[in-house]
Queue: 4 jobs
Job 1
Amino acid sequence: MEKINAIITGVGGYVPDYVLNNEEISRMVDTNDEWIMTRIGIKERRILNEEGLGTSYMARKAAKQLMQRTGADPDSIDMVIVATSTPDYHFPSTASIVIDKLGLKNAFAFDLQAACSGFLYAMDTAASFIQSGRYKKIIVVGADKMSSMVDYTDRATCPLFGDGAGACMFEGSTEDYGLLDSYLRTDGKGLPFLHMKAGGSVCPPSHFTVDHRLHYLYQEGRTVFRYAVTSMSAACGLIAENNGLNKDNIAWVIPHQANMRIIEAVAKRLDLPLEKVMVNIQHYGNTSAATLPLALWDYEAQLKKGDNLIFTAFGAGFTYGASYLKWAYDGSAAAAPVK
């Protein structure tokens, strides 16, 4: 039996209409556009502010566009994986809501939680299912409504995050394309530095937790920044070394969009010009598990068959890693996304 590789055959995406720019943020907390752009690199972010809409709404919009653009028969989808830290509910899974809304009758679905590294982990998970030969078409979605856990009175965190979703179709191929290598790790020491204090089984919701504002994201920025730079840079370097990749044959690096200075550090580690790095943080901010697929969505038209791509991410846990994927089609031939 020929070796089966897992290739990406299409990309979809969705970002909400509402734009929260730095000027509006500066009216909420003591900050300004210059401070945010200098330290983070974010100009604006999209916010899902319609009442009653959660992560599943954005996920299904991205997945629906993906299916339209790839011409996929709903009955042909075997599996849906949704990477998210902001599920609609503790249960059922956000993925189960997505397959119901899309009418996918032959698919099973589950959520994957690895914070901002969620899509990176989900890609490798989907690739393993494809490589088994038992599954043909898998939709992988990265989606997060980060505004649902952001404290808009906290100057340190509220400028960082936005909402959005991106989706990729994974299929099997016997050609030498697809996800070819991954280095994924988790450092459990990250708990004190990036978490939400309440809402889980250790500290269930109560009047006390609400009154003390414990249901918002907490981050110790300097520590997280240091770990992110070190971990993402090292993972990218290892993947490049193991696969004979260098500044001459790497077409693109797709880094998690958390901070422009982190992105620049990763590029420097690989000795790559920023022109070879996908960057859209200025428009969307940190959309957690959605950053990697949204970058593909924005840059798809520039991708060429055979391009060598390195994905890398870092998130709470601490979760981190890098993956090497050889792109399988000319993106310019795909229909332009409707944004």
Job 2
Amino acid sequence: MSEAGASRLTAVLRGDDERVTPLELFFDLVFVLAITQCTALMAHEHSWAGIAKGLLVLGILWWAWVGYAWLTSTVDPEEGTVRLVIFGATAALLVTALCVPTAFGESAGIFAGAYAILRYAQVWLLLLAARDDPGLRHSSLGLAVSTTIGCGLIGAAALANGWFQGSLWALALLLDMGGPLLIDTEGWRLVPHHFAERHGLIVLIALGESVVAIGAGAGRHVDAGVVGAAVVGIVVVSALWWLYFDVVALVAARRLVNAAAGGERNRIARDSFSYLHLPMVAGIVLVALGIKGTLADTGAELHDTAAVALLGGAALYLLAHVAFRWRNVHRFSWQRLIAAALCGALVPAALAVPALVALGMLAAVLAVVVAYEFVRFAELRARLRAQLH
């Protein structure tokens, strides 16, 4: 390759630009389809195996999305070469999303190939950006190793079936997500406000999937039961939004900004955002699955998988918040822990009452938590919002 050609293959470090660019939002919109497909996979099978498959696919795709959140907080996504590669990665993400419903069957090979393209595009761009940055280059090479292991296992799973195939997927997710625990964190770069906002937007996208589930569950026939379930469903989704965006997101962003640049900030970003946002998103997706089951027949009792998804998903979301708060400010959220335990305890009752009543029970639990924290953290909320202004 000529020197002039090589000079065009560059990736420019982002600098201090805190805005989330339209290109990043475009990439995230394709990720919406991936989330929707995971919910569809779980809803189609109506089994514990289906839920396990959906969560495995969600975890694998989440880790790919996380890679691009780090990438675009490191390099300028609007630079020519990076923009073109991200467009290509977006196409690969779209193909993987289309394969989700049959990722454990006839589309397993296509999924594995598209996923590998998606992951290696990120590694390549990081290595381009790291030409003059030894620390970033060292971290990127470590990422390349964990990416190779994860993609290799997904490829091997395409040749397997049954429990062995699922085990390969689980191992791929475990080893791929475990890689950053072994990679030196000092070399990574990120823009804290941008990084926190990007994760907040993906939570918003996941909540949007819950709204889509309301429409999908209702179908074409709208009666009093569907209207009631839609209203109560929006109460649930609004409460989930409130629990994240009212105070939690502000505190987390401030903690990331105030952390010392380098290892400390990178570890917080890894733990609080890359790791702990996965159970939040997974919890929202499970709640969406439960809402979809509720809308299918509001007067009937929920199927056991739908009831566990509805209340267990909310419990998972709340527990992730408990861990999130502890990791950021080393304070325990007893009210959210109690609410999570209550959600779990209500599962047997949800199996014995009409679906609409079960949804109403969840809405009541979440509403009580929101009301308590609205009063309890009024001063903190006012102070944080004043600082933002």
Job 3
Amino acid sequence: MSSLTSVRGVLTRSVRDTARYFDACNGFDQRDPLSLPAVGGWEAGLGRHDLAGMTVAIVPDLGTARLRSEVSEVVAGVAAQLAAWAGLRLVDAHPRLPRLRGQWAMTSQVGLLADLGSAYPERAEDLSPAMRLGLESTTERYTLARAASIELYRRQLNEAMADLFEEADFVMCSTNPDVAFVAAGPPPSTIPGADLIAEVGFARAIMNNAALTAPSNLNGSPAMSVPAGFVDGLPVGLQVLAAHHREPLLLDLALVAERELAWPKVASGAPRRV
């Protein structure tokens, strides 16, 4: 938690489940100095916000990621449908987010090392390749100068995100550059004509995969991912970003998607690509 970029939560099958989780788990806790007073009515308030006329920008790559073309097409198509169903007004927005760099990931390694305790490095082989790479790289390269660079990046990102939400109420993009992948990784990157991992290396492939979701993690603004369809029999996610404290609007937009897309409540059973 030292990097303030991740929280414990749940992956739900329905929007109502998510709202009910918020009702049960939000609120102040003395052991969490960053927690806020409880806000109720998440489930009871579902579907009660008027989204019609609010603005949305559809930017599948969020301005920085390299997307597989088939994924980009699925996301753009479903995003346009969702905007129409909700009565959103399409606008042009041009995200000017600073390009994600590997340094930001170093801050999360501090908390990870504390969690592992004496188990690292003795049990390093039990970690995923990405986790091992992060710990090893941070051990070798984390300095005060890099910490300052990370802080500067965070400030630049906060300004860019604020600018983006002055242009649009919602921003729709892909959740990942490619299809879903196994938990241990590596992330697939079938970018047109080439395997990104072979082209630019494992670490940069991870950065490309994170480029769509890390901005909300680092900025602390809400985002949601809803099922958008399949490519090669594997799921593709549509991500919707909004400004701080607009979670209720995101939930209502997700409710529209759930009703219109009728997404499956169980795993598809499609074969994995390995």
Job 4
Amino acid sequence: MVRGFNDKAAFGAGPAWFCIRAQLRHEHIAAAQLKMEEGIEVYLPRIRFKRSTRRGPVWFTEALFPNYLFARFEFGACARKLHHARGVHGIVHFGKQWPAIPDGVISELRRTIGAEQVHVMESQLEPGETVHVSGGAFHGLQAVVTRVMPAATRA
């Protein structure tokens, strides 16, 4: 058992989704390690996009949420082995609270990203372009791209 787990309702209440902090650019390694563990389901949403390089345009694939992935497990039974998995820094927590992510949030991400867990960005966004938000709290709103942020600063 991880010391400090305070949510008695979630503890022992069955598997739940948690946000896992991984090493930057090694999220896929942490995900592969966790997939080998019994009782842990892993979801690592990724994006694939084209970026200009000195060699010309090159396709890149990286985590949608740099440093993070999602895992569904029973906290009491799996938290210790998760903390010791290669590439994992720990379960995201706030003080002595380890918040579970509602199943609906993960389901919505899966619907948006797709079955392959990789969303291909066919065109590159440029500052000044108008976009329509197609999901989440701002669904249906129109927005203007002010800047395109690299993975290290994307949340």
